[in-house]
Write a structure and sequence with these properties.
This protein is of the alpha/beta class and 952 residues long. The chain has five domains: 5-109 and 215-299, P-loop containing nucleotide triphosphate hydrolases (Rossmann fold); 121-205, no CATH class; 350-416 and 578-684, Rossmann fold, CATH 3.40.50.300; 418-566, no CATH class; 699-918, Lambda Exonuclease, Chain A. The protein is globular, with a radius of gyration of 30 Å. The termini are far apart.
């Protein structure tokens, strides 16, 4: 065990157990970390210690987290630790992210060695369902009347959702689908065939789901030369929340550390919650079996909760039977103890609320909240969190209503009440009128879910007709667009898509007013994203006479129906996740990793379901035998779920139930004092203050933020700050085609393929890139433009073939941490040789004559050069811009000097722009040039507000 002196000096409060984690240098390490025991703190300092001792360079450390937010927090905490100990190396080279994110980083770099093409799309939960719907017959087949899909599911939607769960599990468990097809069992045979079709469809569409993201990376590691290269570049892997990994993730982590053996995993089997997403607690429980020589460290001192709370949840967890007659117990032996140095005040830190029914329970809960606020026990009600197994309206509604009756607001963004928002209902009603989704236009309403959706839309239309009758401007706008759609003749098309109608409607009241209220604006922004998803996945580029009926029925009876039935979460501000003035109502899963001064845990009279059917049928084909007995899984999962809930509070834990709690809660519930019969006088002497939450440093990019704001602050407000999605992709097919083909050429060269690089190979790469882009939502060019793009690529390769020997890297991420933000960008090409370093940026246009544009490029490249000078320890020799539309290399290549003084000038400019963004100064003082406004989705809004002149 060895810890760098600078670390000990900067962090003198490291506990003896944490020292064992931080000072572990070589070999496998298992850290069992109880709630609030400082596991992330220990992980961050261990990474810092390895860097300080020279055991690894930043690029040789891989840190895996469970969420993207946790990854950003870990990056910020490492940067802060580096400043405290005086470590000045470039931390932007650290590999930090979720396992899915890490896989995506490697796939982006080595994608050309997979079946994926450039610009592959990663499907999330929604788009995966839409993908299956869009290719339903191809994947799941057709059935005769009275039959079931794959012999199991009666309707398309149940088949899609059911098959999705099986497909993900097959990929995550690395099941050989051929064994399913040959099993002889009808359902498994059909499932194996469908899975094969699904995999083929993903490749054909250049898509990948989250499970396949991992499988593609695993397959890359099995290529000996590439696998050795990737493994050789990583010296240490550190994994947080290891109890929530699945089988393929375990295999990836084992493979990455196969040569070094330096795998450090941190977690708590008692907090394993994600079996329903494929996670298995066995990975952490069996880690000592996989690595008999591993060091085991237990972090069992909690620095979070009051002693009474700790003793209660620790004893409750130990009350269950975790023994295993056939081997080690299903839980590591441990006893969680409170911080011995913490002052422990005497007051009722644990009590219960019990009403004769749900309404009385909710009223007593609201009374307690009022008491805590009125007596200043909590400074703000946002310090109080109510945790439930589900926050849908039927579960959270009584609490919300009881709080409202007392004049207290509740924040429950995941109650799936998005479609009840006034602005969303108004937009749905407006689109329904334009597309004629009413009366006979609603199609077949035999399905219950379609009927419910139609009833909802009818209510939206009725509200709209009542509140905004003709000649209201909104009514006139709707009528104008409806006439245009209705009057389409055969072979006619409107140069408009659904999202274009959406942006035109935003210019009229009440939407123009809604846009001035941030929460309403963000709900409309969510709808703009959903419209974009619809257009992309159903390939409705514009509205035509031929597709208007299909578009109407697909949008409402398929797409909107799926969203309405499943529910959509409201907007949550990542910078203000717990808005002041609101009691927080969330699921127990959502609260994982969080802490609050006061936590109220409900749902104690409920039995959350645990899905086991998929595992039951597929487990015979897994690579390892079943672990936990099926008869005990439900009980284990329920104990773990509420253990997480009970360990969230700092000062006060309240248990609540409207009926008799389930028997498993007896060890913690029995003999508790009941509200309001508690020692209120002792409570009133307390002040429960939330620990300060350090905000994440915001990241701004050169092209995605600074250049957009410089072009138009209003565009920035809508498309970057509020997250509206443009109706039509702002990128140009031609530029992408040239840029992505050249990038793939460079990757081939980096793989040692320069000798094989001829015109035929370049054309092959070009055609593959073209096919991939044709699958995206980007307008393709005509034949002439396509030929011109190929000429640019061939011309560049022919004239620069010898220069390609000097390629160091392509698409290089660069970032610069400043006091108030982090600036990031990407260098197209990095060249070296003879001790030189050169940066090259590609522009798929002719050399401009506008000096201001070159000045902006110089400013950006000087900053890139400054970042890379710090990283490589050498000053860039030249900054290059290559204009691919120029025929001759002499005209194509612009050489810009690297002037350090320009870095300071650029920094001052970036600081000024970021300051304007952070102060939300989005007003347009000088309108952009006419061409930009004419192609902008906001043109009608800006015209109505007289920011710009109206266009014809």
């Amino acid at each position: 065990m060895k810890i760098h002196p600078a670390l000990l000096k900067a962090f003198p409060d490291i506990s003896p157990e944490q020292r064992k984690v931080i000072g572990h240098i070589q070999g496998p390490l298992l850290v069992i970390a109880g709630p609030g025991s400082g596991k992330t703190y220990s992980l961050v300092l261990r990474a810092m210690n390895l860097l300080l001792l020279g055991e690894a360079q930043p690029s040789q450390l891989l840190l895996c987290t469970f969420t993207e937010k946790a990854a950003f927090q870990m990056r910020d905490r490492l940067a802060a630790a580096a400043r405290q100990v005086g470590y000045d190396q470039d931390l932007s080279q650290l590999l930090i992210g979720t396992i899915h994110g890490i896989c995506n980083q490697f796939l982006a770099r080595y994608r050309h060695q997979t079946d994926l093409a450039h610009g592959y799309e990663t499907l999330d939960d929604l788009t995966q369902l839409l993908f299956l719907y869009d290719r339903f017959e191809e994947i799941l087949g057709e059935i005769e009347e009275g039959e079931h899909y794959l012999g199991r599911w009666a309707t398309r939607w149940t088949a899609i959702e059911g098959a999705r769960d099986y497909f993900n599990k097959i990929t995550e468990e690395m099941v050989d689908a051929r064994l399913l097809s040959n099993s002889g069992e009808p359902f498994l045979h059909a499932l194996g065939q469908a899975y094969h079709s699904y995999g083929s469809a993903l490749i054909e569409a250049n898509c990948v789901d989250f499970a396949h993201l991992q499988r593609h990376f695993y397959d890359l590691l099995q290529k000996k030369a590439l696998g050795d290269k990737i493994r050789g570049a990583i010296r240490h892997v550190l994994v947080d929340e290891y109890q929530d990994t699945n089988y393929i993730q375990e295999q990836l982590l084992l493979d990455l550390t196969r040569d070094s053996g330096n795998l450090c995993v941190v977690g708590d089997e008692d907090q394993s919650l994600y079996r329903f997403r494929g996670a298995t607690v066995r990975n952490i429980l069996e880690f000592p079996k996989r690595f008999p020589e591993c060091r085991l460290v237990r972090l069992t001192t909690t620095f979070r909760s009051h002693r009474r709370i700790v003793e209660a949840y620790d004893a409750w967890m130990a009350s269950a039977d975790w023994t295993n007659p056939e081997g080690p117990a299903f839980r590591f032996p441990k006893k969680i103890v409170p911080d011995p140095d913490a002052r422990q005040a005497r007051y009722p830190a644990l009590f219960c609320i019990w009403g004769k029914d749900k309404a009385e329970e909710a009223r007593r809960f609201a009374d307690m909240v009022v008491f805590l606020k009125k007596n200043q026990i909590v400074e703000d009600v946002s310090s109080i969190a109510l945790l439930l197994h589900s926050v849908r309206g039927e579960h959270s509604g009584p609490y919300v209503e009881a709080l409202q009756a007392k004049g207290i607001a509740a924040f429950c963004p995941r109650a799936r009440a998005y479609f009840e928002a006034e602005e969303v209902r108004a937009m749905v009603g407006a689109l329904a009128l334009i597309l004629a989704y009413f009366e006979d236009g609603q199609g077949d309403l035999e399905s219950r879910s379609v009927r419910e959706l139609a009833e909802y839309v009818n209510e939206c239309i009725q509200d709209l007709a009542r509140d905004y009758p003709s000649p209201h401007p909104l009514a006139l706008c709707i009528q104008e667009h409806k006439r245009a759609v209705d009057s389409l003749q055969k072979d006619q098309a409107l140069d408009q898509r659904l999202a274009d109608l959406f942006y035109d409607l935003l210019a009229a009241e009440p939407f123009a007013g809604y846009l001035r209220e941030e929460n309403r604006a963000r709900r409309l922004a969510i709808l703009s994203t959903l419209l974009n998803v619809f257009q992309s996945y159903y390939r409705f580029t514009v509205i035509t006479h031929a597709n208007r009926v299909a578009l109407r029925l697909r949008f409402f009876n398929s797409f909107l129906r799926l969203l309405y039935e499943g529910g959509i979460n409201d907007y949550e501000d990542p910078e203000q996740p717990f808005p002041p003035g609101y009691v927080q109502i969330m699921t127990i899963h959502q609260a994982k990793g969080m802490e609050f001064p006061v936590v109220v845990v409900g749902s104690l009279d409920k039995n959350p379901a645990t899905g086991k059917q998929v595992d039951r049928e597929l487990s015979p084909f897994y690579h390892r035998a079943p672990f936990e007995p099926e008869s005990r899984i439900t009980g284990f999962d329920r104990m773990r779920l509420h253990y997480v809930a009970f360990s969230r509070p700092q000062h006060l834990l309240v248990l609540t139930a409207g009926e008799q709690p389930k028997d498993r809660f007896a060890p913690i519930w029995d003999d508790l004092d009941q509200w309001p019969h508690v020692d209120k006088e002792a409570l009133c002497r307390q002040r429960f203050v939330a620990r300060p939450r350090t905000p994440l440093k915001k990241r701004y990019s050169f092209t995605g933020d600074l250049r957009v704001y410089d072009t138009c602050p209003r565009q920035y407000e809508f498309f970057r700050y509020l997250d509206f999605t443009p109706s039509r992709s702002a990128v140009i097919f031609f530029g992408l085609l040239v840029h992505q083909t050249i990038e793939d050429v460079h990757r081939l060269v980096l793989d040692g393929g320069l000798r094989r690089l001829n015109d035929e190979r370049v054309i092959d790469i070009f055609e593959r890139t073209f096919r991939a882009l044709m699958l995206s939502d980007v307008r393709p060019p005509g034949r002439e433009a396509r030929d011109a793009a190929l000429r640019q690529v061939l011309n560049y390769v022919r004239q620069n073939r010898d220069e390609m020997r000097r390629i160091i890297d392509t698409e290089v991420d660069v970032s610069l941490e400043k006091e108030a933000y982090i600036l990031s960008g990407k260098v197209d090409l990095l060249l070296g040789g003879d001790g030189k370093l050169e940066l090259l940026d590609f522009k798929t246009q002719s050399r401009p004559t506008d000096g201001r544009l070159l000045d902006a490029y110089e400013r950006q490249l000087c900053t890139y050069g400054h970042i890379l000078e710090h990283r490589y320890g050498k000053r860039p020799e030249r900054l290059l811009v290559y204009w691919t539309a120029e025929e001759r290399k002499q005209e194509a290549l612009t050489v810009l000097p690297y002037r350090p003084e320009r870095v300071d000038e650029a920094g001052a400019h970036f600081d000024r722009v970021v300051g304007l963004i952070q102060r939300h100064e989005f007003g347009v003082r000088v309108p952009p040039e006419r061409k930009i406004c004419k192609e902008c989705d906001l043109r009608r809004i800006c015209s109505t507000e007289r920011i710009i002149e109206e266009f014809d």
